Amino acid sequence: NLCTTCTTSPCDNTIIAACLPNYQFEILNLFTKKRVRSIGSHNSTVKWLSWSQNGDVLASALVDGTVNLWNISQSKKCDPVLLVGHTDTATCCSFSHSENSPPSHLLTASSDSTARLWDLASRTSETLREHKGRVNMCKISPLNRLLCTVGHDKQMCVWDSTKLFMMWKVFYIFIFIFHFYI
Q1: pLDDT, position 133
Q2: DSSP of 73-104, one letter per residue?
Q3: CA 25/CA 19 separation, integer angstroms
Q4: Looking at the predicted structure, is the pLDDT value of residue 132 above 60?
Q5: Short-list 143, 86, 80, 142, CA closest to 109
Q6: pLDDT greater at residue 72 or residue 179
Q7: Staple partner for 9: which of 15, 69, 134, 178, CB 3.0–4.6 Å?
């Protein structure tokens, strides 16, 4: 079967999480090519998957704008925790970094021109607005101090993760330079 998106486990690079076109969500072993377990199913096409650093939680960003959190440390099928806030396709998600404990935050990006920083304990979010158009990518820095968003507007914004203010913005000048040398 084709998959719509996949990601490797941070704990074991032989294991991947994959979303199939029928919205099924599975954990697969790359070497044996066998299903390790079926997680459940989504209500919409999955655009992005992100695995928490400790390997216990998977986040899936969906076309319907929701983000699902799956606690895969359970040995059976599990129901996702839904994060609802985006008004258009959720395009990307990134967990805060935590070695041996569950992540505390999740950063999500969306076609609704926003990114959201979710507090996973309270399931509430703060909205980051600076892009004009779809936000394609997002990432939390390894020390959890900075947030980065990249938009269809050819801007990369870097945010302070505690005060949620934009520290600086960079335009994609290098794309045009690269284009001229081809």
Answers
A1: 95
A2: TSSS--PPEEE---SS-EEEEEEPP-SSS--S
A3: 5
A4: yes
A5: 86
A6: 72
A7: 15
Count of positions (residues) in the chain: 182
Assign 135 a pLDDT band (cuts: 50, 70, 90): very high
Strands (E), 9-165: 15-19, 24-29, 34-41, 46-51, 57-62, 67-71, 81-83, 90-95, 105-110, 114-119, 124-129, 135-140, 146-151, 155-160
Q: How far apart are CA 180 and CA 182, in angstroms?
A: 6
CA distance 12 to 30: 10
Kindly tell me the sign of the dihedral angle through the C-alpha atoms of 143, 98, 16, 30.
positive
For the record, the structure tokens of 29 come out as 């072993």
